[in-house]
Amino acid sequence: GCQSSGGGSQTLTAGTAPGFPPFEMKRDGELVGFDVSLLEAVVAKSDYELSGWDELEFKSLIPALNNGNVDVVAAGMTINEKREEAIDFSDPYYSSNQAIVTREAGSFSPSSLDDLDGALVGAQKGTTGESVITEQLVETGTIEASAYKAYGNYVLAVEDLLNENVDAIVIDVPVANSFVGDRPITTAFVYETGEQFGFGIQSGNEQLASALNGGLTAVRDDGTYQELTAKWFGQ
Ligand code: ARG
């Protein structure tokens, strides 16, 4: 949790869920990615200090904030009303939609959610990709509830797609782009969700919210944000 150190600055433990390139992933055993670099740059603009990173499953991040095990979440987490009942968010720092990803070599090439009729579809537990499946495919009767396969992370989902255990996975577009680049899979179509990622914090922690928002403004103003997007997204 937040701890005051002698100098009056407070240390923060950050939480994330690796396996979500290029936002957070393990490279030679080290946690790296856009979220990691961005949060570090943002916190460096504030009176806070980052003491370290906890790696958790995505679905455990909001509980970890609420029980005080982490102070800030940087995990490509979409800001939405349901989550805002439990936690607060910083200002948005990245936009995303959902990609429907299939095997490149397969004959299955859906171009709309309706085309997923009868397909086996995967996503990471607790994500907005999962919500697309439950709300737009299961609840509409396009697929059976049992045709949804939930994974602890997207690396496992992509492996299962390659192993032909699912026909498609629903995953944030920038992450799909990263996986598609080095595996024989392809984005069949994009489902527009208009999501915005924010850093998650405990409800009511206005001091931290304004520190993070100030830091986000500062890294946009001094070019750091641009450098980081160029580095991690090549744009
Ligand atoms: N943007 C999606 C969501 O908020 C997926 C985030 C998954 N993040 C991760 N680090 N695995 O649900």
UniProtKB/TrEMBL annotation:
UniProt keyword terms in alphabetical order: Signal
PROSITE patterns reported for this sequence: PROKAR_LIPOPROTEIN
SUPFAM superfamilies, A to Z: Periplasmic binding protein-like II
GO cellular component terms attached to this protein's record: membrane
Keyword Signal: yes
Domain Ionotropic glutamate receptor C-terminal: 11-235
Recorded GO MF terms: ligand-gated monoatomic ion channel activity
Keyword Repeat: no
Occurrences of domain Solute-binding protein family 3/N-terminal (ranges): 11-235
Protein name: Transporter substrate-binding domain-containing protein
Species for this entry: Haloarcula salina
Taxonomic classification: Archaea, Methanobacteriati, Methanobacteriota, Stenosarchaea group, Halobacteria
